[in-house]
Amino acid sequence: MGGKEIEYVNSAFEENWIAPLGPNVNGLEKEISEYVKVGHCAALSSGTAAIHLALIMLGVEQGDEVLASSFTFSATINPILYQKAIPILVESEKDTWNMSPNFLEEAIEDRIVNGKKPKAIIPVHLYGMPAKMDEIISIANEYQIPIIEDAAEGLGASYKGKKLGAFGDLGVYSFNGNKIITTSGGGALVSNDAVYIDKARFLATQARDQASHYQHSEVGYNYRMSNICAGIGRGQLKVLDKWVALRRANFDRYKKELASLPIEFLNEPSADYFSNRWLTTVTTSSYENREEIRVALEKENIESRPLWKPMHLQPIFKDYPYFGDGLSERLFETGLCLPSGSNMTDKQQERVITTIKKCFE
Ligand SMILES: *Cc1c(COP(=O)(O)O)cnc(C)c1O
After folding, report:
1. Which of 23, 64, 197, 258 is found 20 to 30 A from 86 (Cα to Cα)?
2. For a pocket test of ligand 1, which of 150, 223, 307 has the largest count of ligand atoms closer than 8 A to its C-beta?
3. What DSSP designation does 328 have?
4. Using 50, 70 and 90 to split pLDDT, how confident is the model at 19?
């Protein structure tokens, strides 16, 4: 926490707005819109809810196909199944570990030849590193397929000076407890199209028609953010840029201190890419080496984690079409997320660094 969160939470109590609506919810929506420079924002109960509503906004229905990054967290893909639609999993490229424009185009061509144009593309900015948005947008435009930008891990990062989440027809953020800023649990949907956001808010509050009684003509959801959680979010937004700077400093220090070891860091491909370094990740020479480091850290009571297991390897998603060359499978085998918290002290980071160095002595 940054310090100001409790003041917003207290104001919710003082004003007796203990509900999934209120001044903090409205305030957070306005402040997110201003921060990422997107016209409209709906504060929601989770990033997953935001992806689900985004798919509904784009008319994704049973049997429709949706292209998405395979190298991601399952919450990118699950909402496609909520709609009984079909995920088409696209492999990453090596520069950013995000959706490969080449495999994206190959997948689109293949699906069109097989009779059906996909309804949406969901690129992800994994670990806060911007995807190759120019190329992805140009393909999306060529085939006239809308983009849902999964910026759940990318808040505060930017590409060519524009904040992640602001590129898609719809953009998604998460404020889950593990993300760069948190409302304990929560998310947001943003768009420059007011129609999408108004409709998303309507569906997120049980799709109540205009009437004095409760009347419903559509399936609704209970997806709004609590006014208390939104208060936490307003305080967190004030420290977001500071947290990004701290996380980038974590990355820089790891990179500098571990430079002599045979492990690799993912660099920003050019000055166009500004990662929030949500998590510092490294790749090692082999699965065995990765495990040696992970277990050595664990013995010191330091938590580290393998990179996301790609969706095309997950038991629940493995039978869906996949386009790629297996890059994320190798990253999963050899990669590790290092402790990366914004509140990590120099001493704590030193302990991680020393433990990793010992593995190579
Ligand atoms: C965290 C995350 C989500 C889901 O957000 P929740 O708020 O946890 O529902 C979606 N996509 C990615 C890539 C994430 O990391």
Report:
1. 197
2. 150
3. H
4. very high
Structure token digits, residue 253: 């220090």
Domain count, the chain: 2
∠ CA 287-290-295, rounded to 5°: 120
Q: Which residue has the tokens 């997320």?
A: 337
Same-domain check for residues 84 and 199 = yes
Q: What per-residue confidence (pLDDT) applies to 115? A: 83
- Measured in Å, residue 190 CA sits from the centre of ligand 1 at 15
User: How far apart (Å, rounded) are the C-alpha atoms in residues 56 and 49?
Assistant: 11
Q: Can you give the residue range of the structural domain that contains 244? A: 240-358
Last residue of a domain, one of 203, 237, 271: 237
Task: Read off the CATH number of the domain in which 121 is found.
Answer: 3.40.640.10
Best mutation site among 174, 232, 279 for ligand 1 pocket (most ligand atoms within 8 Å of CB): 174
**Given pLDDT bands bounded at 50, 70 and 90, which one contains residue 154?**
very high
